[in-house]
Amino acid sequence: MEIKGHVLVLPYPSQGHINPLLQFAKRLVSKGLKATIATTHYTVSSISAPFVEVEPISDGFDDEGFAKAKSAELFLESFKSNGSRTLTQLVKKHQTTKEPITCIVYDSFLPWALDVARENGILGGPFFTNSATVSAIFSLIHAGNLKLPVLLEDCPVVIPGVPPLNLEDLPSFLNAPESYPAYLRMKMNQFSNLDKADWIFSNTFLSLEAEVVKSMGDRWPAKFIGPMVPSFYLDGRIEGDKGYGASLWKPLDHGCTKWLATKPKSSVAFISFGSMVSLSQQEMEEIAWGLQDSEHYFLWVVRDSDKHKLPKGFLELTTKDQEKGMIVNWCNQLEMLAHDSVGCFVTHCGWNSTLEGLSLGVPMVGVPKWADQLTDAKFIKDVWRVGVRAKADGVTGIVTREELVTCLNEVMSDGEKGLVIKKNARKWRELAKEAISEGGSSDKAIDEFVVALKDILKVKR
């Protein structure tokens, strides 16, 4: 009888972390392993993917999740104590079945999961949901090779394999460590017990960050298994895999696809700032009028909680005359990016959105706000050259309507710069597809893990 191996996958309970880890679970199932997602009671009902089981654990806030916690510190402490206890119970529950859990792949934000694995005599490894470059930056801080805070006079910061980074290219916590102490600590804790892990997984691919990967070498011996984007948009080898299978919001069909079908090829700017970024009223107004002033059609995802920040009359203008633009509170981002009519992606440059833009070959306008989005925007503009970065106004710190119009024109026009960006976007789409297709670098890395896990289990038997 073939020994399958059973991997328990543990994401941090937010959309941007659940998506890639759930996608990895699906990849493992397609390779013949059994995979179970362990997630908080509050998010468990939002996750559903064929052949991947979903089991609840506790973060201590079972009814309302993170929203119920008074602070990020309190949530993380509670998740560590309650999560460790209930994850242990889950492992023990499976120990008596025909398919006991043999490995825990956990979000790198949750290093305590490795302690649970070790205490129960099973294997474990973290999954990093950001770029290899951002991991390299934080590993240097952890090793004491980069001191905080990073100030203007310390720049540019030179990291092997990475172009010189100025203050606006570095994760925002580095200049102001006190701004989000809990998140900075969480970033640093990723490396706390890394030397005890059996594997390290990173949601990127070799050709995308080749120089960084080379420079990291033995210090961070990760398996590069990305992009963790549904198979339909890349290699097509997982049947029916068109979406991640997790949504913490109620998807509403606003007829986005129907509306896009009425527009010419590559004529629409798709705007989405992810699930965490909340723009100020002033910036919302500038973006709104910038979209209205531009010569391009637009489809803008605006959460209900942010709708009141839109300028007076703007919503009426777009809903009354949907010829020019459409505002929705949710839509399937992958489906939109894959649509022929979409010619540009205005994004906050979160790593998942960046990978989706690259994987679907869509030119980007970066409007980064915090954390690793700033570094991702640097790569979008200067390394992969698949887009531009909107410059924030020196006084207000926001992107003005004029700047947005300039960026849209640069990316969507057929001028020299626009043509280079479009060509590079197509190139990276092919390289992403190649990495995850049979025999590609990411595919091989996943296969190596599957084979190693099975070999270890044979020995254990």
UniProtKB/TrEMBL annotation:
Keywords: Glycosyltransferase, Transferase. InterPro entries: UDP_glucos_trans, UDP_glycos_trans_CS. Its EC number is 2.4.1.-. The keyword Zinc does not apply. It comes from the Eukaryota. Pfam families: UDPGT. The keyword Glycosyltransferase applies. It is an enzyme of class 2 (transferase). PANTHER family: GLUCOSYL/GLUCURONOSYL TRANSFERASES, UDP-GLYCOSYLTRANSFERASE 74B1. This is Glycosyltransferase. It comes from Artemisia annua (Sweet wormwood).
